[in-house]
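Example 9 (inverse folding). The structure is encoded as follows.
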């Protein structure tokens, strides 16, 4: 599969960056609307910002920077899923299958996000391993 063109990466990077900055501004302007601690919402906005920067780095062919940004993106996503799964307080989730939607029990909610946290932690470990390994070798991975 061919990698996206630099122009495509620049456009997508700018869109992702703008979305993350917009979300961060809305979090700051309307914290009363949050159903989670502000840091959780900022971590989600930060993932978009980091993804945008990663796409911009890809357009510049800075693969080493993309690897480290991927680690940071995984860390943002891990922190969110871990908070939902293991954080204090009650959790309310909705699950949907096609056209049917209903409230999920707290155990289903926490279990689903806990499974996601484990998977993202594995990706985080793999990304960290690749980033460290690529810094110590001269060959790109």
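The amino acid assigned to each position is listed next.
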């Amino acid at each position: 599969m061919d990698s996206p063109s630099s122009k495509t990466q620049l456009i997508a990077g700018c869109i992702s960056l703008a979305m993350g900055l917009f979300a961060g501004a809305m979090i700051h302007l309307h914290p009363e609307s949050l159903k989670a601690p502000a840091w959780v919402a900022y971590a989600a906005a930060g993932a978009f910002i980091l993804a945008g920067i990663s796409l911009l780095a890809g357009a510049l062919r800075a693969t080493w920077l993309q690897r480290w940004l991927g680690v940071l993106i995984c860390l943002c996503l891990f922190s969110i899923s871990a908070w939902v799964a293991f954080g204090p307080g009650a959790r309310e989730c909705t699950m949907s299958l096609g056209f049917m939607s209903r409230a999920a029990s707290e155990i289903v909610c926490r279990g689903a996000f806990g499974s996601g946290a484990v998977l993202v932690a594995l990706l985080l470990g793999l990304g960290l391993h690749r980033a460290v390994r690529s810094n110590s070798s001269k060959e790109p991975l």
